C-alpha cells in the first residue's frame, strides 16, 4: 500500500509542479521573472506541457517500442496553447493488453485531474479513432490538428496520416455539412467585427474560421493562407491570426480562467497589455483582423467549392461559360473575372468596371482577379475619366451588393488606393451605443439605404457620393463635418465633378447633420429656426432635397430605432417650411440645338453620325430623320440592340425633322459603324425589325437568366404643366435597364403622346429622364394617370417588402 501511495504522490506532485510552473509563467512582472508577451507565453506553455507529457510518458513506459503513443489535438496540437485552454489528448494503443492500457491511462489522466487541469481525453486504437472521425465532423476537424507528443511515432503517424487521407477522400460528401456547421456557428455567435463583446473563438472572423481554412487546405481545395494583395490593410491573414490569438491569450490571463468572449470591462486592460491602446483601439484592431479572416473564409469556401471533384453525371457537364459583363470583364464559374484579352497594366478603369459588375450582379470578384488588379492595375489619373466615375456610381447604386464589393476591394487594398481618405475611418469603432457599425461599414450601409431613395432627388449621383462621404472626416482632429467637407472637396475634384457639383458635395458633407439636429432640438414654429437652415444652405432647394433624403438613409444605417415616424415627421415639417421660404424648383426646359444640326435637318433625309466623346469609352451619336411617331423608340432601340448604353440623350426637332443626340458607351469593344446604325434604323422604322422581341432577347442574354423584375429604388413620376395648352412635362426618376429609353418612347407613342423634346441622363444605374409631351386636348388627371401607369410598367421596381422589414427605407425599426 505504501508503495502505491508513494507512486500516487509522485504523480500528483508532478502535475502540481506543472500547475506551479504555469502560474509562474502567468505571474511574470518581477525583475527575476519578467512578464512574457502573449506569443512568448503561448510558446512557453507549449514547451511546458510537452516537457511534462514527455517526462510522464517515459515514466509510464510510453516509448517508441511500446505500442503506445500520446497525441495532442486542440490548442496543444496547433502549438497555440493558451493559459487556461483545455488539454486535449488521445492515448493510442496497438496490440497492447487492455489492463496495461487502462493502467497507463489512469496514471496519465488522474494527476492532471487532481491538479484541476481541464482535460479532454480519449483512449483508442487507430481504427477506432478513424471511425470516430468519419462519423463526427467536429471530431474529424479536431483530429486534423493532431500532433505526436510521446511514444510510438509510427502509431501516431498512422492516425495523423489516416485522418488526413480520409478527410481528402471524403470532403466532397462532407462539404455541405462543413458549410452548414460554420453558418450555424456564425448565426449563434455573430460577427466579431461588429459585436461590442465578441466571441473571439466562435464568432465570424474568429479562430474557428482560421481552423476551417486549415481544414480546406488539408483537403487540398485551397491555400490555408490565401494572398490578399500587396496593399492589404492590417498585414493580411497571418497577422490577423496572430492578433486574435494575442487578444484571446491576454483575455485568459486577465480573467484567470478560460474565456472566449471579450468583456467590455476587460478591454482597456487587454489593449494596454498588448500595447494597442484603449478599448476603442482594441476594437479597431479586432475589426480589422476579423474582417480579414471573414473575407479569406469567403474566398476559401468559393475556391473549395469550385475545386471539389466531380462525380457521376456532373463530370459530363460542359465547362462553365464565360459570359461578358463589361469591357474586359466576364462571369466565370459564379465569379467576376477578367476577360482573357484584358490588360490591367494599360486600363486604370478596369478596377471600377470589375467592382461595378460584381455589385450589380451579386457575383463575388475572383480573388485571383483582385490580386492581379492589385499587382498590375495603374493608378487612376486625376481627374478621373467620366467612364470610371460612372462605374463608381453604378457600384454605389447596387444596394446590398455594394457592401460586399467594397468590402472585397478594401480587404485587398484596392479601395484604399481609389480612396486614400478611407484609411482614417477603416474599422473605426463608434463612440456611442446607438451606432451598430464601425464608421466605414456605416458609410457602406448608408450608401445601400440611399440607393433605395435615389428617385426622391434630381441628382442621385450626388446623393450616393454624399452617403459615401458624409462621415469621412471622422478619425481626425476637429469637427468631422467641417473636416469632411474639405476632404469631400478634394475627392470631388479628383473624381472629375463639375465645380458646382464639388461645392454641392462639400455642402452635403458639411451640413449632413443640420436637418436632424435642427428638427429635433429647436422650435420649428420659430421663423428664426427655418431662416437658420435657409441661410446655412444659401437658399439651395436642390441641396435641401439631398440633405432630406440623406438624413433618412443615415439614420437607417445607424442602428435599430434611430429612424421612425416621429423623426421623419419633424424633419419633413422643417423641410416643408424651408421650401416655402426658398425659391421654387425651376421648370425643366429643352436643350438648345446646335446651328449645324438645324441646317442638316432642313435638308431632310436620314443621317446617323458617330463620333468619339469626351471619355475613352464614350461616343456621341446624332440621328437626324423625318419626324414620325416611334422614331425616338426606334433610334434608342437600335442603339441598345448594338450594346450601346445611353448615358444621356437630347431630343428636339426642326421643321419636319427630328434631331436626336445620344451620348453612348459600348458595353464591350468598339461601337458599330455609323452606316450600320443608319441601315438598322431604316429597317426599324419600316417595321422590318421587331425591336421589342430583340431587346427582350438581348436582356436575357445580358443577365443570363432574364431581366430581374426588381430594382433598389421605387420609380417616381413627376408632372409639370407645359408652357402652352395641350402640353405637359413628365420627369421620370428610375433605375436603368437595357433599352429603357426605347421602351419609354414606345409607351408614349402607344398612348398618343407625342414627344416634342426630351432630356435623358443616366447617372450610374439611375436615370432622370424628362419628356416634353404634346397631349392634345385631353391633359386632365385621368390621361396623365393612364400614361404614368404605362410608364411604370416598363421600369424596374423594388420587390414588395413587409411593413416591419427593418431594411425598408421609411419603415420603423424596433430595438
UniProtKB/TrEMBL annotation:
Entry keyword annotation includes Plastid: no
Catalytically driven reaction(s): [protein-PII]-uridylyl-L-tyrosine + H2O = [protein-PII]-L-tyrosine + UMP + H(+); [protein-PII]-L-tyrosine + UTP = [protein-PII]-uridylyl-L-tyrosine + diphosphate
PROSITE patterns attached to this UniProt entry: ACT, HD
Region (Disordered): 791-815
Cofactors named for this entry: Mg(2+)
ACT domain mapped to chain residues: 620-698, 729-807
Molecular function GO labels: [protein-PII] uridylyltransferase activity
Protein name: Bifunctional uridylyltransferase/uridylyl-removing enzyme
Organism: Nocardia aurea
Amino acid at each position: 500500500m505504501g508503495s502505491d501511495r508513494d507512486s500516487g504522490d509522485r504523480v500528483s506532485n508532478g502535475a502540481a509542479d506543472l500547475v506551479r510552473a504555469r502560474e509562474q509563467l502567468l505571474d511574470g512582472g518581477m525583475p527575476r521573472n519578467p512578464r512574457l508577451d502573449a506569443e512568448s507565453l503561448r510558446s512557453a506553455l507549449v514547451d511546458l506541457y510537452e516537457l511534462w507529457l514527455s517526462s510522464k510518458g517515459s515514466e509510464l513506459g510510453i516509448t517508441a517500442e511500446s505500442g503506445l503513443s500520446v497525441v495532442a489535438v486542440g490548442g496543444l496540437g496547433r502549438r497555440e496553447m493558451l493559459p487556461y485552454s483545455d488539454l486535449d489528448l488521445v492515448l493510442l494503443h496497438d496490440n497492447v493488453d487492455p489492463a496495461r492500457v487502462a493502467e497507463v491511462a489512469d496514471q496519465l489522466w488522474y494527476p492532471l485531474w487532481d491538479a484541476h487541469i481541464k482535460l479532454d481525453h480519449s483512449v483508442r486504437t487507430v481504427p477506432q479513432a478513424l471511425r470516430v472521425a468519419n462519423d463526427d465532423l467536429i471530431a474529424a476537424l479536431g483530429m486534423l490538428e493532431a500532433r505526436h507528443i510521446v511514444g510510438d511515432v509510427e502509431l501516431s503517424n498512422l492516425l495523423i496520416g489516416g485522418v488526413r487521407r480520409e478527410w481528402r477522400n471524403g470532403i466532397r460528401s462532407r462539404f455541405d455539412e462543413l458549410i452548414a456547421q460554420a453558418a450555424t456557428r456564425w448565426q449563434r455567435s455573430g460577427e466579431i467585427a461588429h459585436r461590442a463583446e465578441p466571441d473571439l473563438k466562435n464568432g465570424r472572423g474568429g479562430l474557428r474560421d482560421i481552423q476551417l481554412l486549415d481544414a480546406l487546405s488539408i483537403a487540398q481545395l485551397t491555400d490555408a493562407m490565401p494572398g490578399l494583395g500587396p496593399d492589404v490593410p492590417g498585414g493580411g491573414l497571418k497577422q490577423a491570426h496572430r492578433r486574435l490569438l494575442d487578444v484571446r491569450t491576454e483575455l485568459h490571463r486577465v480573467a484567470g480562467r478560460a474565456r472566449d468572449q471579450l468583456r467590455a470591462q476587460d478591454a482597456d486592460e487587454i489593449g494596454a497589455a498588448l500595447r494597442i491602446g484603449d478599448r476603442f483601439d482594441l476594437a479597431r484592431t479586432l475589426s480589422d483582423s476579423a474582417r480579414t479572416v471573414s473575407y479569406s473564409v469567403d474566398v476559401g469556401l468559393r475556391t473549395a467549392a469550385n475545386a471539389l471533384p466531380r462525380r457521376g453525371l456532373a463530370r459530363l457537364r460542359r465547362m462553365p461559360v464565360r459570359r461578358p459583363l463589361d469591357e474586359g470583364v466576364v462571369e466565370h464559374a459564379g465569379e467576376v473575372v477578367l476577360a482573357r484579352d484584358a490588360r490591367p497594366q494599360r486600363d486604370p478603369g478596369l478596377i471600377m468596371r470589375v467592382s461595378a459588375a460584381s455589385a450589380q450582379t451579386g457575383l463575388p470578384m475572383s480573388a485571383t482577379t483582385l490580386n492581379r488588379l492589385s499587382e498590375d492595375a495603374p493608378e487612376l489619373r486625376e481627374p478621373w475619366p467620366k467612364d470610371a466615375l460612372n462605374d463608381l456610381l453604378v457600384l454605389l447604386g447596387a444596394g446590398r451588393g455594394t457592401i460586399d464589393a467594397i468590402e472585397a476591394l478594401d480587404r485587398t487594398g484596392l479601395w484604399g488606393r481609389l480612396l486614400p481618405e478611407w484609411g482614417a475611418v477603416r474599422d473605426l469603432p463608434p463612440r456611442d451605443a446607438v451606432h451598430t457599425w464601425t464608421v466605414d461599414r456605416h458609410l457602406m450601409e448608408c450608401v445601400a439605404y440611399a440607393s433605395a431613395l435615389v428617385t426622391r432627388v434630381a441628382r442621385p449621383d450626388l446623393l450616393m457620393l454624399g452617403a459615401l462621404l458624409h462621415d469621412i472626416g471622422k478619425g481626425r482632429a476637429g469637427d468631422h463635418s467641417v473636416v469632411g467637407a474639405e476632404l469631400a472637396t478634394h475627392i470631388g475634384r479628383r473624381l472629375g465633378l463639375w465645380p458646382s457639383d464639388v461645392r454641392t458635395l462639400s455642402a452635403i458633407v458639411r451640413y449632413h447633420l443640420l436637418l436632424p439636429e435642427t428638427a429635433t432640438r429647436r422650435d420649428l414654429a420659430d421663423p428664426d429656426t427655418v431662416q437658420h437652415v435657409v441661410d446655412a444652405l444659401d437658399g439651395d432647394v436642390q441641396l435641401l432635397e439631398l440633405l432630406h433624403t440623406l438624413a433618412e438613409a443615415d439614420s437607417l444605417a445607424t442602428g435599430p430605432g434611430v429612424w421612425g415616424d416621429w423623426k421623419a415627421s419633424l424633419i419633413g415639417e422643417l423641410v416643408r417650411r424651408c421650401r416655402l421660404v426658398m425659391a421654387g424648383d425651376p421648370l425643366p426646359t429643352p436643350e438648345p440645338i446646335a446651328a449645324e444640326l438645324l441646317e442638316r435637318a432642313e435638308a431632310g433625309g436620314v443621317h446617323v453620325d458617330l463620333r468619339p466623346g469626351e471619355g475613352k469609352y464614350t461616343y456621341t451619336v446624332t440621328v437626324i430623320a423625318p419626324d414620325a411617331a416611334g422614331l425616338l423608340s426606334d433610334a434608342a432601340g437600335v442603339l441598345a440592340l448594338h450594346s450601346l448604353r445611353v448615358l444621356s440623350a437630347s431630343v428636339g426637332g426642326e421643321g419636319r425633322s427630328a434631331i436626336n443626340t445620344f451620348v453612348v458607351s459600348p458595353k464591350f469593344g468598339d461601337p458599330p459603324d455609323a452606316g450600320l446604325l443608319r441601315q438598322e434604323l431604316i429597317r426599324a422604322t419600316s417595321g422590318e425589325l421587331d425591336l421589342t422581341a430583340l431587346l427582350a432577347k438581348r436582356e436575357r442574354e445580358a443577365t443570363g437568366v432574364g431581366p430581374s423584375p426588381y430594382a433598389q429604388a421605387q420609380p417616381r413620376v413627376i408632372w409639370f404643366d407645359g408652357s402652352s395648352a395641350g402640353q405637359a412635362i413628365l420627369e421620370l426618376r428610375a433605375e436603368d435597364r437595357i433599352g429603357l429609353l426605347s421602351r419609354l418612347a414606345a409607351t408614349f407613342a402607344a398612348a398618343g403622346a407625342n414627344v416634342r423634346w426630351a432630356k435623358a441622363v443616366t447617372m450610374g444605374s439611375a436615370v432622370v429622364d424628362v419628356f416634353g409631351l404634346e397631349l392634345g386636348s385631353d391633359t386632365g388627371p385621368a390621361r396623365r394617370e393612364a400614361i404614368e401607369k404605362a410608364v411604370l410598367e416598363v421600369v424596374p421596381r423594388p420587390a414588395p417588402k413587409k411593413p416591419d422589414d427593418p431594411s425598408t427605407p421609411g419603415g420603423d425599426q424596433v430595438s
